[in-house]
Design goal:
Elements (H helix, E strand, L loop, with lengths): L5 H29 L8 H24 L7 H14 L9 H11 L5 H4 L1 H5 L7 H16 L7 H18 L17 H19 L14 H14 L4 H22 L11 E5 L5 H14 L8 E4 L1 H4 L7 H12 L2 E5 L13 H16 L4 E7 L1 H9 L2 H6 L3 E4 L4 H14 L3 E2 L1 H16 L8 H19 L7 H5 E2 L11 H9 L3 E5 L6 E5 L6 E3 L6 E3 L4 E2 L3
Length: about 550
């Protein structure tokens, strides 16, 4: 072997293959849990569909990189053997590796990136997993490129090509090359139908037959509720929102207990208004609310259907009512989440189609009061105006939850969560630079402040910069692959002189002891390191503190 680090790379390749499969399978189970009404056929068939898609993706990544230099090295062949054993555990079609490889290389061009990553682009519960998919794919591609030594220019070009394809299909709004607008609220049901057709072609081309078994796990109502509330508690920040949701849950539980003992119950409107800037977790909390209602038996399914004005209001007379009714039908027995709901009614009041959508929605809320919960979301002031504009809205939506902007430390913890999910670590210097950057954008924010979306963009940009930084490095160790350095952190809005505070060495970060909750100040060099609390002597990792002045 010409690559002294080959055995380690091969082991990492096997781990990345497994990570890809687990991402697709866990995503299948998430869709089954959160949007069962969109999935035709059985849960088993959908899991098998996702398993097939991950195999197609592995083939596409491998062939795209290996073909770059027009040769199939011995190291790449060994990678291929591992890949083929994973795709065809019962043996490659025809029994010959060379014949199977020739078939794979010949047919790989017909595999479309859009088809292979479609679940993460168009299935609502999987939108936030796109960055995990990008991480896995880029890791796979880098490992294949480095199998026989430092990547060659053609391989580097293919790595960039793969990155561009993923951006085009998963985050088209960030792509400089695509002009295809992304639908804000894609139709998950239509996406599944398209996936079924594409996967059938994949099976025929590659003789792929998933043998994944799906074992159903029946959980009690109490167990399901406990799991959902644990998800709520795990969210970063949003303390007041969590308190309100807990209060609502306790009320519903009390009503259930009173009913069981023959006592009178009090009716409470379950419809909610979420006020907050973009990226503050409104959709995530709405999904959790649906699961709470489902686990408590308030709704039989508890799934979430997302929409906005474009999903309710038509362009021509007579079409808005049917369009709104169709969207409500999708949400029956679950939660209808209307984002930017204030746009349903123009501030001038001259919006007959928008008013028709609101009136249709109000009627369905009354007609299906036991099968439908509606959450209206948007900027706080605009949502107040919307609710005041219609007595029917103000009488049905009397609970409003306010989603505050995330502080710099909370933004850092969100970034840290993305890194943990995707197996990255952040150096102390990178943490400090990131927190200082978040401090600047937080202190200069307006109502369009991106919050969690800002973090996602910064994270994805950091991964791209990391990929470019290590492209010419060989051998490629796991540490190099997974470590985000300060130079990988760039936030375009932040002026250069703000970063200079780090060079001056006078930046302190407020951290709280995980034992006694005592707050103390630490310099940048201690971020990410274990420290001891002076008050209670507890040892904990000093991560993601609030910068001075935040």
């Amino acid at each position: 072997m010409t690559n002294p680090n080959f055995d380690s790379l091969l082991e990492q390749f096997q781990q990345a293959i497994h990570a890809c499969q687990q991402l697709y399978l866990s995503s299948a189970k998430l869709c089954i849990q959160q949007c069962p009404s969109f999935l035709p056929g059985t849960p088993e068939s959908f899991v098998q569909l996702m398993d097939d898609l991950h195999k197609g993706l592995l083939i596409k990544v491998y062939v795209t990189v290996v073909e770059a230099d027009q040769r199939w090295s011995q190291e790449e062949k060994r990678f291929g053997r591992v890949l083929f054993d994973h795709i065809w555990p019962g043996g490659v079609p025809g029994g010959q590796l060379r014949d199977a490889a020739a078939h794979v290389f010949r047919e790989a061009k017909s595999l479309n990136w859009s088809s292979l990553v479609r679940p993460f682009a168009q299935m609502q519960p999987l939108h936030e997993r796109g960055d995990q998919l990008v991480t896995v794919v880029i890791r796979l591609a880098n490992l294949v490129a480095k199998a026989d030594g430092a990547p060659k220019p053609g391989e580097l070009a293919r790595l960039q090509e793969i990155q561009n394809e993923l951006t085009n299909h998963l985050r088209p709004e960030l792509s400089p090359t695509t002009t295809r607008p992304r639908t804000n609220m894609p139709q998950s049901a239509q996406a599944v139908q398209t996936m079924q057709q594409e996967t059938q072609q994949l099976r025929e081309q590659y003789e792929i037959h998933s043998d994944i078994e799906v074992i159903g796990e029946e959980k009690s109502q109490e167990e399901r509720l406990a799991e959902v509330l644990a998800q709520l508690d795990a969210l970063i920040g949003l303390n007041q929102v969590k308190h309100e949701i807990r209060t609502l849950t306790n009320f519903l539980n009390m009503q259930r207990q009173r009913k069981a003992q023959g006592l009178p119950t009090t009716n409470l409107s379950l419809h909610l208004v979420f006020g907050g800037n973009p990226g503050t977790g409104k959709t995530t909390v709405a999904r959790i609310v649906g699961q709470i209602y489902g686990s408590m038996g308030v709704l039989s399914k508890g799934h979430l259907v997302e929409t906005d004005r474009s999903g309710l209001v038509a362009e021509y007379a007579g079409q808005t009512g049917p369009k709104t009714n169709q969207k409500v039908d999708e949400a029956l027995d679950g939660v209808l989440f209307v984002d930017e709901a204030y746009s349903l009614v123009a501030e001038s009041g001259d919006d007959p189609y928008g008013r028709e959508a609101v009136q249709t929605l109000l009627k369905r809320m009354e007609d299906n009061r036991d099968r439908l919960v509606v959450v209206l979301a948007g900027y706080p002031e605009e949502m107040d105006r919307l609710i005041r504009s219609n007595p029917g809205l103000s009488s049905r939506f009397n609970t409003k939850l306010t989603f505050e902007d995330y502080t710099p430390g909370s933004l850092g913890r969100i970034f840290g969560g993305m890194c943990k999910t995707n197996h990255y670590v952040v150096t102390s210097e990178a943490q400090a630079r990131l927190l200082l950057g978040f401090q600047w954008v937080y202190e200069n924010r307006d109502e369009h402040f991106g919050n969690g979306r800002l973090v996602r963009n910064v994270f994805e940009n950091a991964i791209r910069r990391l990929a470019n930084r290590i492209a010419g490095i060989a051998p490629l160790t796991k540490e190099i692959l997974t470590t985000i350095q300060a130079e990988d952190i760039v936030i375009d809005e932040v002026p250069t002189d703000h970063w200079q505070r780090l060079d001056e060495g006078n930046v302190q970060f407020s951290i709280s002891c995980q034992g006694c909750q005592e707050t103390t100040q630490v310099p940048a060099k201690y971020l990410g390191r274990k420290v001891r609390c002076k008050r209670c002597s507890a040892r904990f990792v000093a991560e993601w503190g609030e910068p001075n002045g935040a």
